[in-house]
Every structure is written in structure tokens, then in C-alpha cells.
Amino acid sequence: MTGNDLQPAGSLPPHVGDVVLRAREIEKYFGHNHVLRGVNLDVRQREAVMIIGRSGSGKTTFLRCLNFLEEPTVGWVEIDGVRADANPLGARDRGHRERVRRLRLNAGMVFQEFNLFPHMTALGNCTEAPMRVRGLDRRRAEELADRFLAKVGLADKRNEYPSRLSGGQKQRVAIARALCMEPRVLLFDEPTSALDPELIGEVLQVMEELAHEGATMIVVTHEMHFAREAADRVIFMEEGIVCEEGPPEQVLNAPEDERTRRFLRRFLNVE
Q1: Euclidean distance between CA atoms 58 and 16, whole angstroms
Q2: Taken in order 214, 218, 222, 224, is the CA torsion positive or negative?
Q3: Nearest Cα to 174, choosing from 193, 201, 148?
Q4: pLDDT of 182-197, one tens digit each?
Q5: % of the chain residues with pLDDT over 90
Q6: Which of 247, 174, 182 is nearest to 206 (CA)?
Q7: In angstroms, rounded to a whole number, what is the distance separating the alpha carbons of residues 151 and 259?
Q8: What is the pTM of this model?
Q9: Which terminal CB of the chain, N or C, has fewer other CB atoms within 10 Å?
């Protein structure tokens, strides 16, 4: 399947809903380096999509283009009816900046590094954006924060500062922080890559529970067991294009594209 093909609606699981996110013809250059080559994606409500591929395949760049942390060179992204087109001069365009701002309100991001504010407690990290960006009052913001800190198993850590949390706990606070914005789609950029091996499981368990509860998720990951258990759809990228996509049992167990087979053979040999 090329970057210009889209997943047929009939092959999707019955629990998914209408399309929440659309990305069309996303291209990205860094100087002369052509990192993304016309990638398309539709993601539906309650669908969990995992993106796999070797380092340098364009996975993270594509994810960051979906909420314009990286400005696409070509193409457009629409989330929940808010569309932003590639605009390399967007910093000078107030209308473009406003569209990107509205787009980001609908896309919660969880990074490789935790990016928590070190001078704020877990509660403060979770309430800052809802109050400053969404305009919620403190009572409502703290209700959301307590709800989602409990959801990730950290209700008893609400008043702790990041320096007193383990790496896994920090990443779970980061997930709670993203959930507090009540986004339409959650974007995860290899959320376990900075963790010690013994801490990876606690983060993946939270993410798997979110997927099974119907959170709309796009996850860049190297965790193949997690992708097999949690994904509705797996996408394999190489050299800036989508080479193959489909249900996890097809892509991970019986891939049709030789590039996918080659990657999985090498990955499993390494593992």
C-alpha cells in the first residue's frame, strides 16, 4: 500500500466511528532531505493506530506534522472539522496561526521525554493547560486532573513534584496531562523509549487500557507486543511512505510487502 492509498472502511473494526482526523499528501523537507513523501491518513473515532518502522523512516516527523509541531512542506491536516494547510510562512499569517492553535486543542501529545514542568506538582502540570488554554476555572481543572491522575494510577501522587517520581510515573502524569485537555485524538511519540525496561510495562498498561476503552490514538512505537494487543490498525513506514497497513494480525503476522517482512525479520532478530 502506498502513501496515496487509504484504508478501506469495510476492513475496520465495527466499534470505530466517523473520521476524526484526516491528513492528505503530507510532505516534509529538511533542506534537501525529503523525509515525508505524500503520506495520507484517516483515523476514526475510537480507533487505535500504531505506526512502526525503522529509525529515520519518517514516523515521528509525520506524527509531529499532524499537530503542526513540524510545519508540513506540502499537504493539510483536519481534526474534528478544523483544517490547517501547510504554510511555510505561517509565522507571518495570523489566520494560519489561529487554525493551528484550534487544531492543537483537539490533539493531545505525549512525547518521548516527559516535558513536565519541574516547579509544578503532578496536579499543577495537569491543570495548567486547561486553565490557561481552555479557560477552565481552578475547581473544574482540578476535578479533571484528579479524575485522570486516578485513571493512570497516580491519585496518591497528585501533590508530588516530578523530581520525586520515577520515569514511568512521570510519563503517566504526561498522559494524564494530555487527557485533561479532553482532546479528540491522542498522539504518542515512542512514549516508552526514554524509560528503563522495568518501567515500560506500567506505561504500556495504561495505554492499552485507553485503547480498549475506545480512546482515539495514534502511537509511534517499537513495542510490537503492545501493537499486537492494542491496535485496531498497524501502519508500517519506510523512507517517508506508508508501505503497508492493516489489522495487526495481518501486518505483524503475515505482512504482504517485502519491506515490512524485512523490517520484522531484522527487528525480531535484534529482540
Answers
A1: 26
A2: positive
A3: 148
A4: 999 999 999 999 899 9
A5: 87
A6: 174
A7: 38
A8: 0.91
A9: C
